[in-house]
Amino acid sequence: TVIVLDFGGQYNQLIARRVRECNVYCEIFSYKTDIEKIKEIQPKGIIFTGGPNSVYLEDSPTYTREIFQLGIPVLGICYGAQLMMHLLGGEVGTAPVREYGKIEVTVDPSAKLFREVSEKTICWMSHNDYIAKAAPGFDIIAHTSDCPVAAVQNTEKNLYAVQFHPEVLHTQEGKKMLSNFVYQVCECSGDWRMDSFVEESIQAIRQKVGKGKVLCALSGGVDSSVAAVMLSKAVGNQLTCVFVDHGLLRKNEGDEVEAVFGPEGAYNLNFIRVNAQERFYERLKGVEEPESKRKIIGEEFIRVFEEEAKKIGAVDFLVQGTIYPDVVESGVGGESTVIKSHHNVGGLPDYVDFKEIIEPLRDLFKDEVRKAGLELGIPEYLVFRQPFPGPGLGIRIIGEVTAEKVKMVQDADAIWREEIANAGLDKKIGQYFAAITNMRSVGVMGDERTYDYAVALRAVTTTDFMTAESAEIPWEVIGKATSRIVNEVKHINRVLYDCTGKPPATIEFE
Ligand code: XMP
Questions:
Q1: Is 373 annotated for ligand binding?
Q2: What integer is the mean pLDDT of 484-507?
Q3: Domain GMPS ATP-PPase: where (predicted)?
Q4: Smaller CB count within 10 Å for the chain: N or C?
């Protein structure tokens, strides 16, 4: 195991993921974790992440110096690098020139960290502070034109620090550097695989649950499906899956989910469908603010579960298919800032009467969840389904949610998805959907003036849903979908295409 100590950077889970890509198990811990806990784990290596602070400010996150005396290799990244230098007697200050973006770095290829890395290599930099002077015992092994100390090493103590971010793809040879750290420096064996993750998770769940009863929130999306099947492998009949149709699903989706996971399907999940459309619409009446909508949908969900749980009898555990990007963007997973309060994460009402929540996919990225799904024998067409957010169409209807708008967005979305599939683009695009804007505008239909809604089409390419680019869809495909939507869907007279990437937008509209 390699552990990542989280000091609040945005890319921390990416570091863990890159290490797992080297077939080395990796987990993230807060910088508040006690050193005794780390000694217990006996990791083969430790990585300090970046973070938004300056090390010399009083309440910046820090760690005990003892960590460098355990004989465990440490790699500091960005803030982590500065912190290591600061703690070990180097100097950190405001950089005379702030570096941001892709910067050419000159490295010393004889250093273990840079084995087989080009001498001049493009790295991603994002820092205001810099290492003005390396700590005693450290050699400088990389620099840029503005940053004399871009990387340092102390080979005797196995301590390494880099100012740039090897975990982001913009650092062209970053993967190589991290793999050098785990293999050359930490001497990891690299025998961790997704099948062992699945096997270990099943064992751990079995142990935790014992003879307890488990209730799973199944939405039919990739994450909850993988979580449900994993649970069913672990505890079989002790599991009941409840599927809440909140009336905010895609067109015909409720029936499709029931067909796959219900009693007629291939899995034994004790599947219960709850049709709760009316309650959700009622509670959403007049609510426009995105975070309020998300909270209402999330809370109502929990209430429906509670009621179901009461019918079933005592339930000990609630399973949720939360994955890592949900956790980080909700700001409950680590030290980084809140972007959106994702459904399924945090914010449980106080009166919840389950003993505990199980989230078996909490550390994984979407593509890792998919690998786990395949490992569990879930068919490909389910595993590669595009993601659908927990609050569903509720966050694809900008402003107030009404039954009429749900119908409009469902129909427009179904047409858009059909046209994308007809064009053979469905496997190439990470996520694509329609959202109904809160804007009405004037149009003309036949000889009549119309004053109707505008629908926005969205399609993005992405690998991890943390960042995304607007997909370049051929104009004919957009044109065909547009004319079908305005002709077939009542009260839509305008179609817009969203060209924005993430950042600065998010994938969903709310
Ligand atoms: P954003 O809009 O934050 O979305 O760029 C990133 C990915 O997360 C999905 N998403 C959610 N998934 N519960 C979920 O399970 C949520 O509340 C939620 N909100 C967004 C979104 O569809 C995209 O794939």
A1: no
A2: 97
A3: 192-385
A4: N
